[in-house]
Structures are given as C-alpha cells and as structure tokens.
Write a structure and sequence with these properties.
Layout: E1 2-10, H1 13-16, E2 28-33, H2 52-59, E3 64-67, H3 89-93, E4 103-108, H4 111-119, H5 127-145, E5 149-153, H6 170-189, E6 196-200, H7 202-207, E7 210-212, E8 218-220, H8 223-227, H9 245-258, H10 271-276, E9 280-288
Parallel strand pairs: 2-3, 2-4, 4-5, 5-6
Antiparallel strand pairs: 1-9, 6-9, 7-8
Helix pairs in contact: 2-9, 5-6
Length: 289
C-alpha cells in the first residue's frame, strides 16, 4: 500500500523564523535529462551560473554529483520528433553506473519533444508518449539499478517564457505543456513501484511568480521581472527558454523541500524573492509504508 505525503511550504517563513538544518541523507546525486540539467558534462551548460542539481548537491553538504543529462535530449523515440545523434532519456539510463547506497536520482525531461520539431517547422511530439517514457526511465532506474529514491519534475509553462510569450505559439506551447504535465501527474498518482518518488512541480514554481489574468494583466511579478528568471531571448541564438542562475537556485530550494527537508539553506541570489514571499510551491512524495 502506497502512502502519499503532501509537502506544502512558503520559503519566506524561514527568513522570519530561521534555523539551521542538517544535510540531506544522500551522498550521491545522479542526474538525467536535457539542457535544463546538463552541467557541461554532456552537450554544454545552458545557464549563467550553477545548475539546480549543483546547488542541491551543495545544500546536501557536498554530495557527489554525476550528471549524464545531455542538452537537446528528448524522452525517447517518437515518430513525430526528428532523430538527432543525441542520447535520449532512455539512452542515459544505460550510462548510469552500478547502484551505490545513499543515491538520489533526478529525472527532468520532455521540453525538447516540443521544441525540436517546432524548430524544424513540424508538429510537436506526442505529450502523452513523452510522459510515459519518463516513467519508463524511472522504472528502469528502479528495476535495473535498484534505485530507491527518485526526484522528477514536470515542465514550466513554455508559453510564458521569453521565447513564446505574446507570440504566435504561446497558447500552443502552454497547451502542450499542460497535456504533458497532466499525463505525468496521472502516471505518478498510479505509480505502484517500490521506490520513493519525489515530485517537484516546476510549473507551479515558476508560474507562482506570474499569474496571468483573463484581461491580460498580471499579479505578482511583472512579465519583465518574470523574464529575469530566464536567459534573455537573443536571436539568432534563440534562447529565452533556459533558467538563469536565479531560476536554478529556486529549483534547488524547491527540490530541497520536496525531498522532505524542513527548511532550505537560503541562497543569496534568491533572498529577494524569499523575503517578498513569492516562493510558494507544492511537493509530492510517494513512499512505501
């Protein structure tokens, strides 16, 4: 019988009532995914600072980080997605070393199933297949590597990123992400494996800063301030989709709490957001009784 634990937190509370916490109980982190997680060991570093898993390893007291994520990677084979010579999420599961005790696996993938076809003027990949392939990878980690602790993330709203906001594909991008995230959540809720699954809701983490109203106005951060979480759009290099260092710091704080830790160790770059009370999110955990 599986038990689900809901972890809800507002990080600003810990600036009002600060206290020190011990390091998390993981000595190793093995990360799989795409450019949102690639720290340069795969296909490059797509941010202006540390990747979220590097920040998380530091928060854990210096956990050893092995990153097999690869920029440009998709979740797996999809007839609708052009095939590139880049390791998919499935391929990355074959690169994971033999299991070691006290290891956290992180899985974050799916965006390129939408972005790669679009960059080739093609319809995007199947969001439901992409979500299924993420859980196929999770099952492989559990069955082949005896993974006991796996953290996975959904996708932020691509329609609100600098690349797509107020453009022809904004609604298209948002709808695709919603379909993917709903499917991922359904698979999580019906998960029957034996590993501890931790879920970080990246969609709510980023959208919590910007609440778009029906009349086009926003509450919370302005669109410009929301953009500060992402690298700027700079044609022809076409970014506007990857989080800046600040965004990765917020992701690490969110992951820290989603893993069940009672308090983050605030990172200086995110203090202004913490103090403003913006960083609210929901983390979910499935754990065996």
């Amino acid at each position: 019988m599986m038990k689900k634990i809901y972890l809800v937190g507002l990080l600003c509370c810990f600036l009002i009532f600060p206290f020190q916490v011990s390091a998390a109980s993981f000595d190793n982190i093995i990360s799989l995914g795409d450019s949102l997680t690639d720290n340069g060991s795969g296909n490059g570093r797509y941010t202006d600072g540390l990747i979220w898993t590097e920040n998380l390893a530091s928060q854990m007291g210096g956990a050893r980080l092995l990153n097999v994520a690869y920029g440009g990677s998709t979740t797996g084979v999809d007839p609708l997605v052009p095939d590139y010579p880049i390791p998919t999420l499935f391929d990355q599961t074959l690169l994971v070393p033999a299991s070691a005790p006290s290891t956290l696996y992180t899985v974050w993938s799916g965006a390129n199933n939408f972005l790669r076809p679009l960059s080739n003027m093609l319809p995007p990949g199947d969001p439901f297949l992409a979500a299924r392939q993420v859980f196929d990878a999770i099952n492989i980690l559990e069955s082949s590597y005896s993974a006991t602790d796996i953290l996975f993330l959904n996708l932020p709203d691509l329609g609100l990123t600098p690349r797509f906001y107020d453009g022809a594909y904004q609604s298209f991008a948002s709808d695709w992400v919603t379909a993917y995230n709903v499917s991922l959540d359904d698979l999580f809720r019906t998960y029957a494996g034996g590993a501890n699954l931790y879920f970080l809701d990246a969609y709510e983490l980023f959208n919590g800063f910007l609440q778009l109203q029906p009349d086009g106005t926003t509450i919370g951060l302005s669109q410009t301030e929301h953009y500060s979480l992402f690298l700027p759009l700079d044609p022809p290099y076409e970014d506007g989709i990857h989080p800046r260092q600040l965004g990765h710091e917020l992701l690490a704080d969110g992951a820290w709490l989603a893993l069940g830790n009672p308090s983050p160790v605030p990172i200086p770059g995110s203090v202004w957001l913490l103090g403003a009370g913006f960083l609210g999110f929901i983390g979910y955990r499935r754990k065996l009784k």
